[in-house]
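Example 3.2
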Amino acid sequence: MKILLIEDEEKVAGFIQRGLQAEGFSVDIASDGEKGERKLRRQTYDLLILDLLLPKKDGFEIIKSLRGDKSSIPILVLTARSATEDIVRGLELGADDYLVKPFAFSELVARLRSLARRDKTSSIILKLADLQLDTVRHQAVRNGSKIPLTRREYNLLEYFLRHPYSLVTRRQLEEEVWGYDYDPGTNIVDVYINHLRKKIDHPHSIKLIHSVRGRGYIFTDRPDDLKKY
């Protein structure tokens, strides 16, 4: 698998290149945005690892240019920026995934392999009302707008979409979404439900996540479903 890494920090680029080569990847490096674009025009790559803060042409511009040219190359963004707005902007422009520096090298390898698998697999889309979840690319869209999700938020949303229109209990979520990671001494389920509501429901008149007092939740766009409980 051939990867292009566009990264201006020489030590970081060298570390990533050596590590990925040891994992069996072929890795080319470009030290600024313009050099990276030239390499992309001249050669074919299977994956792109892209830093956002680059000299001459930043990562946002490169993503926009690639997607504008209808390139479907999987893009993993590496960034020292942890601000949500930067991550959201990158994803909305067409990046497939991101990692915030510093990161564990094993996670980088796992995400690259995941992106490679996604690129070879046809998408499976789960839908309810104007919400869609691509279970291959792990992308959520509502009313045409991409919704950035953490891993846990994604898992929670996927579970709801696979069990629509019916009561989902807290115990189900604890066992199926959290599993062994669940700490019974916390209100972590409520916290993530609130996070997910803000992302998928808050801007929209039709709400999808509904609480059933003392019992759990219903994921539905049909008001009559709530009358059953």
